[in-house]
Design goal:
The chain is an alpha/beta fold. The chain is built from eleven helices and twelve strands. α4 packs parallel to α5 and α6 packs across α9. The longest helix has 21 residues. The two termini are 19 Å apart. 39% of the residues are buried.
């Protein structure tokens, strides 16, 4: 059984969506898969899926600090958490199980699974770094349960090799062309996500809205809303402001490109593999002045002559949808688990 360990969130989360997408790919290809939550009643209701679910509570052998943190989290979020009584049966663990554990929680969650093998899923280099710091001087490779790692971007693969000392399987993220459709006609609308660099982006918008060239533009936040509403906003928006910060990949700007937005802002480090001058308007990290000036220049340039900007966003959408395809993700994921299981059989 392949078990994907999933955190319990009270709002849509990109990292969880990706975990579920990976599980669905394996399920479609005949693998025994399930999602593992921490409590029996939690449901992740923000995207539909058919993946079986179960729960495994934190073991009492966890450090006191970890148990307190987990209990406080459940107490604070109890009212907001989507729940359905008895949604998840208690998971019966087997020595043949593989547990895919997110990098940020690997140091604590591995204790929940005393049998089987552990695989770190690395979607962010920052959380991996923090986890390994907490574990030090212990190291994942010193455990006989550690099987390997899966990384979802070039930067995450680099971090895994440097910090764990092992080349991970690399599984690229996928953008479904049935969902992410390029739109030619756009509104005078600028979309942004306030969850990253919220105060900075809010200040930037306040200043930009005073400029004559942008007086007719609407600034629309994307936060805590269903995917169809997010898609509509990106489909309508001419520009997307990227506040990416220490991201392993940074899916939102890629989604915006696929939908035909002109993306301006930060790559967040991990986004450098797709967010380039050929696909958008990246600015140096934390350079707020250049960010501000670039947005003004893009708006003014588009109003004076939209043709080159339309060509750029068409090319960006094509690049994203071709490089980050469902087929590429499926092929890489199936190959990754084939290699992990072959490695297990040799050890």
């Amino acid at each position: 059984m392949i078990n994907f360990v999933v955190p319990e969130a009270n709002s849509p989360t990109g990292g969880i969506n990706i975990i579920i997408q990976f599980a669905e790919v394996l399920l479609r290809n005949g693998r025994d898969v399930r999602l593992i939550f921490e409590t029996p009643d939690y449901v992740y209701s923000f995207i539909p899926h058919d993946v079986p679910t179960a729960y495994v509570p934190h073991r009492q052998s966890l450090p006191l600090k970890g148990r307190i943190k987990s209990a406080l989290k459940l107490f604070d979020q109890k009212q907001a958490m989507p729940r359905s009584p008895g949604a998840n049966p208690l998971a019966m663990l087997d020595p043949s199980d593989i547990f895919i554990i997110p990098e940020y929680a690997f140091d604590l969650d591995r204790a929940r699974f005393p049998v089987g093998k552990h695989v770190i899923l690395v979607q962010g280099f920052g959380p991996l770094f923090d986890c390994l710091v907490r574990m030090a001087p212990e190291h994942p490779k010193t455990s006989n349960q550690f099987l390997g790692a899966i990384a979802t971007s070039q930067k995450c693969a680099e971090a895994t090799k440097v910090m764990i000392g092992q080349d991970p399987a690399v599984v690229p993220l996928a953008l479904d062309p049935a969902r992410y459709v390029f739109r030619t006609e756009k509104k005078k609308q600028i979309a942004y996500m306030p969850r990253r660099r919220g105060e900075e982006i809010a200040g930037l918008i306040k200043l930009l809205s005073t400029q004559d060239a942008l007086r007719d533009f609407n600034f629309v936040p994307i936060d805590g809303m269903p995917s169809d509403q997010v898609d509509q906003i990106l489909s309508d928006s001419l520009i997307y402001l990227s506040g990416s910060q220490k991201d392993g990949f940074g899916l939102p700007p890629a989604e915006a490109m696929a939908m035909g937005c002109l993306v301006v802002g930060y790559t967040g480090v991990g986004g450098t593999e797709f967010f380039t001058p050929q696909t958008g308007f990246p600015v140096p990290d934390d350079d707020l002045v250049t960010f501000y000036q670039t947005v003004r220049d893009v708006v003014t340039g588009y109003q004076n002559d939209p043709a080159p900007y339309d060509i750029l966003r068409q090319n960006a959408s094509q690049f994203i949808l071709e490089r980050y395809s469902l087929v590429a993700t499926e092929d890489a994921l199936l190959q990754a688990f084939k290699e992990l299981q072959e490695h297990w059989s040799r050890t």
